[in-house]
Write a structure and sequence with these properties.
Elements: E1 3-7, H1 14-25, E2 28-31, H2 32-40, H3 44-51, H4 53-67, E3 73-76, H5 85-94, E4 96-101, H6 104-113, H7 117-120, H8 129-147, E5 150-153, H9 159-175
Parallel strand pairs: 1-3, 1-4, 2-3, 4-5
Amino acid sequence: MERVALLGCRGCGKTSVGRLVAQQLGWEFVDTDGLVEARAGRTIAEIFQADGEAAFRALERQVLVEALGHPRCVVSVGGGAVLNADSRDDLRRLALCIWLTAPPAELHRRIQSDQRSPAQRPPLTDAGGLAEVEQILAQRWALYEAVAAHVVETTGRGVAAVAQEVVELVAAGAEEP
C-alpha cells in the first residue's frame, strides 16, 4: 500500500503524527483540512458559517479524492470525512487506514489546549465541550471501525511513539504477500 490514511476525531493527533510518519517514510504529507482551507481561502469555521456544513463536506470530498491520488503519501483525513460512503469506500480501497484513538475526555483536553482550534474549527453540535466530543465520537465510532485496518491508542503517548507504531504497521503491511 502506497498511502496511509490517519483517521479519528479532532484532537487525536492526525496532523502531528502524520507529519512525523511522512518524514520517517520519506513520503509526502497531506492534511485534508488544510487543503480545504487553502482551496476556499477561509478557515473551516468560516466555511461552515458562510456556506454551511454541506458545502464544507463537498469540498472535503473533493480534496480527499485528490489526496488519495498521490502515491507514497500520508493523509491526515478530516474527522468527518467518514460520514460520506464514497469516501469510506475510497479510503478502504486506496489506503492503509489507521484510526488514532483517545477517550473523549482526553480529546476534549487536547482541543481545549490548542489555541488555534476555536477560530479554525466550528462547533459540530449544540452541546459544546466534552458532551460534543462524546456525541461526535459516538456518531462516528462504527464508521471509523469499518474503515480502519488498525487502531492506535494515543493516550499517554508522545507523538514520536505513536508515529513509530504507525511506521511499524506500514512496514508490516509492506512485508505481507
